[in-house]
Amino acid sequence: MLIKRPDDVQPSDITPRSIFRDRRRFMRDSAGIATAAMLGAGGLSLLGTRAARALATDKDAKGQKLEGVVESIYRTDEELTPYSDITGYNNFYEFGTDKRDPARYAGGFTPRPWTVKVLGECEKPGEYGYEDVVKPHRLEERIYRLRCVEAWSMVIPWVGVPLGDVLARFAPTSKAKYVAFRTVFRPEEMRGQSRPILDWPYVEGLRIDEAMHPLTLLAVGLYGEVMPNQNGAPIRLVVPWKYGFKSIKSIAAIEFTEEQPPTSWNLAASREYGFYSNVNPDVSHPRWSQRRERRIGELFKRETLMFNGYADQVAGLYAGMDLKANY
Amino acid sequence: MNRERRVAAIKTGLFATALAPFTALVVAGFTDELGANPVETITHTTGEWTLRLLLATLAITPLRHVTGWVWLTRLRRMTGLFAFFYLMLHFTTYAVLDASLDLAYVVEDVADRLYITAGFAAFVMLVPLAATSTNAMVRRLGPLRWRRLHRLVYAAGICGVLHYLWLVKADLREPLVYAGILAILFAARLPAVVKWMQARRSKGAGRRAAPSAS
Fold first, then answer.
1. Which of A161, A154, A159 is nearest to A87 (CA)?
2. Contact across the interface for B112 and A289, Cβ inside 8 Å
3. Cβ A287–B36 below 8 Å, yes or no?
4. In this structure, what are the phi and psi dihedrals at residue A285, rounded to the nearest 5 degrees?
5. I need a labelling partner for B70 at 20 to 30 A (CA). Which of A57, A114, B91, B127 fits?
6. pLDDT tier, A25 (very low <50, low <70, confident <90, very high otherwise)
7. How far is A6 from chain B (nearest CA, A)?
């Protein structure tokens, strides 16, 4: 099987071009929206609300609105997956293994008040409240593709803050080579945790450069609204170029480590789920092909893209690595 | 005559029951209730009903041994053909909507993915069984050869259960229930077990007969 060799995609020649292109698209889009706003309302006064007007909405959404969200340059023109599908079709085994279980059973989960423990190789460890983690940052709407390891995908308008900005405030030391994440263990609220499907609580991890990458998001909402419980309230990871299970939900602890941290699905089946778990159409899951995916809402499958279509931005992170061995 | 009518009524009931999951799928399709991933819902539902009806087919003979109801055997063909009906829907959904009728894709899947290999094997084994299900075919093959051929159903049952067992990600409970039932149905075919069931029944029949004799 042919694998795109990482060494022919240099970070130096690719990343700037992509950012350049994104900026151009951003400027073009912004200009278009701004012009439309001006023509429509006949005044410059409306320019200030441009960002808010462009944010994704869905008539089915009925959560609490998030204030002060701005558009990010990280978006896609692809059709958004409806709110009802994003919130009704979830893999969140803490609430059950059926995709409808999280929507059914996450109602009793209490995401507020919420604290995040920060541990390990950093200068500012401690227990931070939700507000302490999120408030210092500007909320951005980012429209990302989500590719599940089960070969289905969605397009989701997340709201969140870049993880790298948050992590930087904890001042990781030079020993911080990895970042480990842990969710809560609350079997009384998460009925799925009363059975040993996985080794609870769910844990995940990223290499520090993956964690600091501008695409990596700490999400607190979707469709401009507060994160629904079944999607990982109040705060979750979104790493769009990796399979969905890497994006741990309901984060309760962040630890900077020197060694590669354990991850839940890898512990459950190491041959099937590696630490990296980058979306890669050329590396099959041992039991099924990753070459195609079904976009929720579409009848036929579509081709899966390398790094879920984010190769321009992230291929450089893996330059020289054998992606077949480091699946 | 009365007995004939009763069997006919039971068969009609069986037909309606076995068709119900299909009807429910069609209704759900028209009322947009197949969920976020309708193709997955159709694939899983038709797959589950294939297995259930296959196990039901395999349950008929042991059930006859336990109850002594000879007419049960007359439901076997319809049950088996309904299993095949759901299998055809299951396979067609896969071939058209998952594989986009791309033969190379199907070949790679069958060769590389163990759970698809198992599922495909079950499909291939059940095709001749469905094709030889008519009375005319029984006559043409002769009962002995026909019966020998139809032993393939056991292998198909094993492959079907493996197909399910090998595709789930972490929660093995449901496929293990099917595996357990299949194991029981196999055990119920051991000569010693059959003898024991028949002996138990005739003893029970004797007990029931006793009061009316006195």
1. A154
2. yes
3. no
4. -65, 145
5. B127
6. low
7. 26
How far is the C-alpha of A213 from the C-alpha of B153, rounded, in Å? Answer: 55
Domain range spanning residue A135?
56-318
Q: Tens of pLDDT along A129-147?
A: 999 999 999 999 999 999 9
pLDDT at A9 over 50: no
For residue B170, give the nearest of A198, A289, A301 by CB distance: A198
Whether residue A4 lies inside any domain: the answer is no
CATH number of residue A219's parent domain: 3.90.420.10
pLDDT of the residue at B169: 77
- Minimal-distance CA residue of chain B relative to A97: B171
What distance in Å separates residue B165's CA from the closest CA in chain A?
12
- Written as six digits, the tokens of A128 are 């931070």
Nearest to A301 among B35, B100, B108 (CB): B100
Structure tokens belonging to residue A279: 């979306």
Given B35, B116, B171, which is nearest A89 (Cβ)?
B35
- Test A287 with B166 for CB contact under 8 angstroms: yes
* The pLDDT of residue A31 is above 90: no
Spell out which residues of chain B touch residue A243, defining contact as CB-CB under 8 Å.
none
pLDDT tens-digit map of A34-62:
444 444 444 444 444 444 447 898 888 88
Do B170 and A89 make contact, defined as CB atoms within 8 angstroms?
no
The reply to whether A39 falls in a domain is: no
Specify the amino acid at residue A161: V
* Interface predicted TM-score (ipTM) over 0.95: no
Of the pLDDT bands very low, low, confident and very high (cuts 50, 70, 90), residue A22 is low
What domain count does chain A have? 1
CA-nearest residue to A85 within chain B is B36
Q: Is the dihedral of CA A1, A287, A242, A154 positive or negative?
A: positive
Whether A85 and B36 have beta carbons less than 8 Å apart is answered as yes
* Domain presence at residue A41: no
Task: Give the tokens for residue A175.
Answer: 């020993």
Q: Which of B50, B26, B49, B48 is nearest to B38 (CA)?
A: B26
Q: Is A327 part of any domain?
A: no
A297 chain-B contacts, CB cut-off 8 A = 36
| pLDDT for res A55 | 87
* Whole-structure pTM value: 0.81
pLDDT score at A6: 46
